[in-house]
Amino acid sequence: MTITLYGIPNCDTVKKARTWLADHQLAFTFHDFKKQGLERATAEQWLTQLPWDLLVNRKGTTWRALSDERKASIVDAASALDLMLENPSLIKRPVLDRDGQFSVAFSSAQYTTLFAA
Questions:
Q1: Does residue 63 have an active-site annotation?
Q2: Engineering a disulfide at 77: which of 52, 86, 96, 115 sits with its beta carbon 3.0 to 4.6 angstroms away?
């Protein structure tokens, strides 16, 4: 099993996900998209399984800092992809890649279900 966790290290939800994975002895790679960037192909893969409006975090400070015009321009996967690549902080975190299956956000119950299979 190959696991990659995407996020930023100072995010509380990412910290919880990393701790959960470590506590369950699941080896994973952490991809800090603030330091390592985010490849277009990676975000495009996410969008094949996850709706764009789930990936774009509209509750965070980064979203709120956008102009109303910029917010209104995010209407589909293509516009969301461009926005996420411009500013990865807008991505809801963490994004988990488990053997090419993606999920977003974290809860202990969610990860328990994901890794039970």
A1: no
A2: 52
